[in-house]
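Quick review question:
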C-alpha cells in the first residue's frame, strides 16, 4: 500500500527531476554491459565459467536476461549484456559477497573487464513502443549532469589505530590531477568515523582511467603502503588479484546525486554515516534520496548538493551546505513519516545506542557526522 508521504515524495521527485543528475531509484529497467578481455587461448575456459555463472545469476531476484557475444574481429574480446527489472536488485547482487565468490572462476582466464550500467530511456519496435515511457519501465527523461563522476571507497582499520591512520591520510602530497586530455581528478574528500574510512572522489571524464592513474602515483602508493599494517582486511598491493579483491569489497558506489541549483562560495562539505540494519541499506539510501530531492526543491534550503553512497548496509551521505555545520545534520528530513522509517532502518547498535530518543520528533534523529580528514580540490578543476 502506498502511503500519503510516499505519494507526496514521488510527486516531488517528478517536479525536481531536473535537479537529479544521478539516481538508481526511478524504477527504470537497467542494461548492464560488461566488456571482457580474455587471455589468448582461454576462450573455452571462459565460456565454461560463464555458463556456470549465468545459471546462478538466472535465480537472482530482478534479473531478466543476458547475452554473451564474441568479437568478430578479435577472439579475445567478449561482451556480456544483461537486463534487470531496475538498478537496486542488480546493485544489491553485484556488491554482495555472493557475487565475489560467483565470479571467482573467471579471474584465471580474464585479463581485464569494464562494467557499464545504463537505464533504458527509449526502445523501438513492437506494441510496447506506443506505451508511455514510465509505464514500460523506461527512464522518463534524460538527466542533465555537471560533467562529474562520483565514487567512493570505504574500509575499516584496526581499533586503536585511528589517530595514526588519520595522520597518514592527511599528510600526503597531492598527486598529479590531470590524467589525460579528457580525464581529471577534480576533488578528493576523506572522512573517518570510528575505525571506518570513507574516501569520496569526483572525476571529470573516465572514472576507471582516473582510478588507475591515481593508484600508480608514488604519493598515493606510499600512503597505501603506510596504512597497510593497520587495515582490518589484509591486502598485498603487489599481488594484482589480492589488490583487485580488496578494492572490489571497498567500492562504495554513488546511488543518487541531487543539486539545489544554487551555489555558495562559503559552502561546507560534510559526510553523515548511516549504518543500516542487515539487508536494509538500499531502502535507507532510497529514503534519504527522496528527502534530499524534497530539500533541494525548497528555495530556502541550506542544502546545495547531496550525494548518497551505498553498499550492503553502509550508507554515507555527502553534503555541501550553506551556513555552517549546524545545517548539515537535518536538511532533507522534513517528512516525519519517512524520517520515522529512516530511524527504524538504522542499526542503533552500530551507532552506539538509540538514534532516536524518547519523545524527540523523528526528523530530529541523530546520526554521526564523520570527521573530515582532508578535502582537496585540483586548482584548475
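Suggested answer, residue by residue:
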Amino acid at each position: 500500500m502506498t502511503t500519503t508521504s510516499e505519494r507526496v515524495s514521488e510527486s516531488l521527485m517528478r517536479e525536481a527531476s531536473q535537479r537529479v543528475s544521478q539516481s538508481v531509484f526511478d524504477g527504470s529497467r537497467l542494461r548492464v554491459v560488461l566488456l571482457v578481455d580474455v587471455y589468448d587461448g582461454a576462450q573455452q575456459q571462459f565460456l565454461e565459467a560463464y555458463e556456470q555463472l549465468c545459471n546462478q545469476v538466472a535465480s537472482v531476484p530482478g534479473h531478466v536476461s543476458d547475452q554473451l557475444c564474441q568479437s568478430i574481429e578479435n577472439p579475445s574480446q567478449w561482451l556480456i549484456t544483461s537486463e534487470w527489472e531496475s538498478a537496486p536488485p542488480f546493485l544489491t547482487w553485484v556488491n554482495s559477497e555472493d557475487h565475489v565468490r560467483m565470479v571467482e572462476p573467471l579471474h584465471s582466464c580474464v585479463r581485464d573487464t569494464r562494467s557499464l550500467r545504463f537505464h533504458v530511456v527509449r526502445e523501438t519496435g513492437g506494441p510496447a513502443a506506443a506505451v508511455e515511457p514510465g509505464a514500460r519501465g523506461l527512464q522518463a527523461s534524460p538527466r542533465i549532469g555537471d560533467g562529474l563522476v562520483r565514487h567512493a571507497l570505504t574500509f575499516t582499520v584496526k581499533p586503536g589505530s585511528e589517530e595514526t591512520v588519520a595522520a597518514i591520510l592527511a599528510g600526503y602530497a597531492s598527486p598529479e590531477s590531470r590524467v589525460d586530455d579528457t580525464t581529471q581528478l577534480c576533488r578528493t574528500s576523506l572522512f573517518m568515523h570510528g575505525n571506518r574510512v570513507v574516501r569520496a572522489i569526483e572525476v571529470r571524464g573516465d572514472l576507471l582511467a582516473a582510478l588507475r592513474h591515481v593508484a600508480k602515483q608514488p604519493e598515493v602508493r606510499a600512503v597505501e603502503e603506510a596504512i597497510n599494517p593497520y587495515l582490518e582486511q589484509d591486502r598485498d598491493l603487489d599481488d594484482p588479484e589480492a589488490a583487485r579483491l580488496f578494492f572490489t569489497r571497498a567500492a562504495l558506489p554513488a546511488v543518487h546525486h541531487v543539486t539545489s541549483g544554487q551555489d555558495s562560495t562559503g559552502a561546507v562539505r560534510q559526510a553523515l554515516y548511516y549504518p543500516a540494519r542487515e539487508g536494509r541499506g538500499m531502502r535507507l539510501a532510497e529514503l534519504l534520496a527522496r528527502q534530499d530531492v524534497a530539500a533541494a526543491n525548497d528555495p530556502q534550503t541550506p542544502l546545495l548538493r547531496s550525494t548518497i553512497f551505498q553498499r550492503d548496509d553502509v550508507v554515507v551521505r555527502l553534503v555541501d551546505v550553506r551556513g555552517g555545520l549546524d545545517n548539515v545534520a537535518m536538511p532533507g528530513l522534513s517528512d516525519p513519516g519517512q524520517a520515522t522509517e529512516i530511524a527504524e532502518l538504522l542499526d542503533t547498535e552500530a551507532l552506539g545506542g538509540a538514534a532516536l530518543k524518547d519523545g524527540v520528533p523523528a526528523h530530529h534523529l541523530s546520526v554521526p557526522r564523520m570527521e573530515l580528514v582532508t578535502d582537496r580540490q585540483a586548482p584548475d578543476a
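Why it works: The two ends are 46 Å apart (CA to CA). Residues 224 and 237 are 8 Å apart (CA to CA).
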